[in-house]
């Protein structure tokens, strides 16, 4: 028979191989931290989770109808490891254990016989909990019911145990003071209750790299070199004349015939049709598929949570972000249709609606990006695309498909921006990767794309 543990209680483990599993009423992940006597990992290899499913003596294995389980071979655990802590993390960052029935953690032997059972009670606002730990005591192994919740988030938990967490790159200090911000809604940024963390200490929501915006004195954006002309590329034109170096293709209008423009990285189109009609209401559909993985877990998709969002800029200054935690811009011109947690299924995974007629005159750029909340990279994502759709007819007008993945957790997919000559809206395909897991981390890094 199994023994029911209460918080703080322990019991002996008299077998060499154990499995820790979880019964829970919400989507969740299980992970393990292998720590020494000082409560720290020796290196990041001692952290076993969905993106690193194997560690010294510990492996994640599939469990039907719930999160993966931790399979522990106690003789294979290195002698320096004093404790193996089993962690439950809710998939939905907006959820917490106070909203669901208390989960149950079980310790079984290799044959499936339950040795210990612990109902993890007493949690409220936490979304992460150390449920159980298997630990050494006087040469023998024991199990303890822990039930320690973390409200500070997954990064706070693993950092406390010595795991390194990548931070977004610091923005370079601007070379000149930015101009006064154009009129915009009051209340600070990010808006109260937006739900995503502010940038790391020392960062600001400011342009990256020091490029002066167009309305600074003495220039029209990025100033030309002395003399006013950029030097010709080596070898052009060839001696004795000949052809001039090729320039960028002119921006084209969208076909009026219902055809789709297939964009390459860096290409642009005007948001007007060849018949002269201007677009006023558009949809930006973004989609992706998780890469299927094989191996010991079988042929199934990685559980990847990608989020589409759009940052609104006035010149180089961010004024609003529309994302899963704030589904509408403050002015109502941009609306997010909701979060897709898996990327499963055909068609758009997330859709953002844009009413071009309602965008305030000081807003010059809408930058569409996708971030990976759990830290998966775009090497684990297939068929990522964004497409521009006529909001009136639902006809697809332009599409950009990402050509290959990158080892980054965020992707600037495309931008809509006002052309300085005539104020015509245009779309440009970007396809540039960078490191960020949510919009709050991404925003300080977006200046280079604007």
TrEMBL record:
InterPro entries documented for this protein: Stress/Tellurium_Resist, TerD
**TM region positions:** none
> According to the UniProt entry, which residue ranges have a biased composition of type Pro residues?
176-201, 210-229
Source superkingdom: Bacteria
Give the matching PANTHER family: CAMP-BINDING PROTEIN 1-RELATED
What positions does the domain TerD occupy? 4-161, 260-436
Q: Which stretches of sequence are listed as region Disordered?
A: 166-257
Q: What is this protein called?
A: TerD family protein
One of its Pfam families is TerD
């Amino acid at each position: 028979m199994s023994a029911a543990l209460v918080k703080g209680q322990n019991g002996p483990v008299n077998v060499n191989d154990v499995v820790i599993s979880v019964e829970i009423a919400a989507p969740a992940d299980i992970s393990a931290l292998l720590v020494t006597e000082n409560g720290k990992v020796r290196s990041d290899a001692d952290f076993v989770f969905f993106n690193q499913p194997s560690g010294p003596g510990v492996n994640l294995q599939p469990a039907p109808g719930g999160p993966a389980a931790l399979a522990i071979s106690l003789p294979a655990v290195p002698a320096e490891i004093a404790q193996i802590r089993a962690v439950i993390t809710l998939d939905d960052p907006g959820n917490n254990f106070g909203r669901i029935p208390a989960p149950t953690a079980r310790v079984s032997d290799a044959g499936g016989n339950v040795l210990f059972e612990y109902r993890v009670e007493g949690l409220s606002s936490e979304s992460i909990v150390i449920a159980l730990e298997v630990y050494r005591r006087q040469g023998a192994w024991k199990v303890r019911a822990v039930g320690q919740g973390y409200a500070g988030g997954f990064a706070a938990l693993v950092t406390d145990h010595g795991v390194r967490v990548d931070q977004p790159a610091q923005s370079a200090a601007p070379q000149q003071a930015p101009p006064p911000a154009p009129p915009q809604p009051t209340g600070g940024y990010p808006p109260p209750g937006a739900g995503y963390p502010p940038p790391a200490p020392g960062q600001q929501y400011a342009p990256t790299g020091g490029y002066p915006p167009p309305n600074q004195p003495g220039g029209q954006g990025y100033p030309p070199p002395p003399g006013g002309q950029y030097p010709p590329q080596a070898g052009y034109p060839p001696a004795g004349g000949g052809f001039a170096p090729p320039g960028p293709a002119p921006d084209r209008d969208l076909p009026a015939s219902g055809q789709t423009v297939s964009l390459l990285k860096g290409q642009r189109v005007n948001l007007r049709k060849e018949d002269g009609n201007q677009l006023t209401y558009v949809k930006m559909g973004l989609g992706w598929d998780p890469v299927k993985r094989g191996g010991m877990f079988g042929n199934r998709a990685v559980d990847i949570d990608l989020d589409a969002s759009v940052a609104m800029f006035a010149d180089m200054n961010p004024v609003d972000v529309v994302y899963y935690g704030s589904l509408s811009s403050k002015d109502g011109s941009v609306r997010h249709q909701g979060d897709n947690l898996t990327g499963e299924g055909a068609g758009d995974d997330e859709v953002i609606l844009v009413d071009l007629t309602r965008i305030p005159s000081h807003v010059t750029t809408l930058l569409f990006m996708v971030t990976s909340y759990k830290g998966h990279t775009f090497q684990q994502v297939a068929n990522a695309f964004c497409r521009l759709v006529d909001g009136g007819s639902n006809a697809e007008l332009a599409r950009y498909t990402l050509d290959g993945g990158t080892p980054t957790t965020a992707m600037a997919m495309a931008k809509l921006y006002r052309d300085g000559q005539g104020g015509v809206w245009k779309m440009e395909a970007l396809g540039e990767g960078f490191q960020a897991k949510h919009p709050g981390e991404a925003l300080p890094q977006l200046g280079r794309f604007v």
